[in-house]
Design goal:
about 150 residues; elongated; mainly alpha; single chain
């Protein structure tokens, strides 16, 4: 009888562990699909509801999946992704701040500046000034190899 109870208990724990592992893998797949959506649409005004609809989940389940897999909300991930894209644009071209803000999905350049400053620790204009010089130096010293150009994201 004790042996049966031990085996039954072990099987229940093993099955529960297997279901948790499957759920974690499922969440990871949904997050990956959401990230693909973000990378294709970050320049547009997308919402967490848009992402959830794209992957076929409720908003709340998608938020829980992001938290479980990445430790942040989909909105936080989207904001960070947009700022990383802005970093590249700030250092690799001469677009205006408003054009950069709009191209990465912000319809308000003041809000873009606030979000950028919060994430990067400096305003976008300062980031561009500091890092564009690095890019220009790299561009001039590595004219033969364009692949050596780097965008320094803090």
């Amino acid at each position: 009888w004790k042996w049966q109870a031990t085996c039954t208990c072990f099987l229940l724990i093993y099955n529960a562990w297997g279901r948790k592992k499957e759920q974690a893998e499922s969440k990871r797949k949904y997050v990956i699909k959401s990230i693909e959506y973000i990378s294709s649409n970050y320049g547009s005004p997308i919402t967490v509801d848009d992402m959830a609809a794209y992957v076929g989940l409720s908003r709340s389940y998608l938020c829980r999946a992001f938290q479980a897999v990445l430790g942040k909300s989909p909105k936080e991930y989207l904001s960070e992704y947009r700022i990383k894209q802005a970093c590249y644009l700030l250092t690799h071209n001469n677009m205006s701040m408003m054009d950069i803000a709009e191209s990465v999905g912000f319809d308000n350049s003041l809000y873009f500046s606030r979000v950028f400053h919060k994430q990067m620790g400096m305003p976008p204009t300062e980031y561009a000034r500091k890092n564009r010089a690095d890019w220009s130096f790299q561009q001039n010293t590595h004219k033969k190899s364009r692949t050596d150009w780097t965008c320094q994201i803090l």
